[in-house]
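WARN no homologs supplied; continuing
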Amino acid sequence: MAWGITVPLDGIPLAEHPALYRELADVGYTDLWSAESNGADAFTPLALAAAEPRLRLGTAIVSSFTRGPAVIAQSAAALASAAPGRFTLGIGASSNVIAAKWNDIAFEAPYSRTRDLVAFLRTAFTGARIKEHYDSFAVDGFRLGLVPEPAPKILVAALRERMLRLGARDADGVILNWVSPRDVRRVAAIVREENPAAEIVTRIMVCPSQDADAVRAMVRPLVTGYLTVPVYRAYQTWLGHGAALADMWEAWDAGDRKAAVAAVPAEVVDAVCVHGSPAECRERIAEYVQGGVTTPVLALLPIGPDPREALRSLAPSS
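OK structure emitted
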């Protein structure tokens, strides 16, 4: 079974990650998936693992807004060539915060931008010259000079139904975030209806700690930081969690950040964050797989034991 981990790991310098990656492969991890927000970029941590043949590499995700289409194709082709057959490109719209507030790029028509980028990348990876006016951007005369063989798979970070169907239909599958095992069952049904063979990668916050109060105290600010962003707020409403998050949203909209954090119910934290003993964590992650996830990707939270110790305790071989 696939068993991934989100990289890079907090508290461990990037220079030490190659040795860590070998250790992760030794204890049964199969995948490394990079996250890109305000820390490392999506490609560099994976490039450090290209020489480890036991690990698949994936981006979760590269924003479809913050790089030009040609630059995304070049970066993906380089990594796919460094790790032939082991790299998967995860792309997605990201959010207005990252695109507009942090990068001064208009966050417009995210569905169209992501759809058009998938179409462009499919063609670019063949080495064809592209002169095309898509709905959301135009490319005039680009040809990829380093053509990867094989071409990397493309996954789409998807929230609601249109993007889920796009990822299943036009790409090779989807990447999910901020979901519970019950949410996954609903989402997987939509994806499988569109394409039974589609991959479903899911990032899962995990903390092998039995101090539930400490875990909840750490996760509540993360919930408010993410689930108040408009795209995630709409997503959680679509999933049916509007009532549970209503008090948090009301406090946030009123400008009371402290009250918003305090208003996050324990059941919301427990739904989106796996915690408990390592054995309990592995059992809960298995629920995601039973719900339709093909590749669970653990996002280790910085609490409790040393990250290396925590990863060993959560490994499939444990």
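The radius of gyration is 19 Å.
OK
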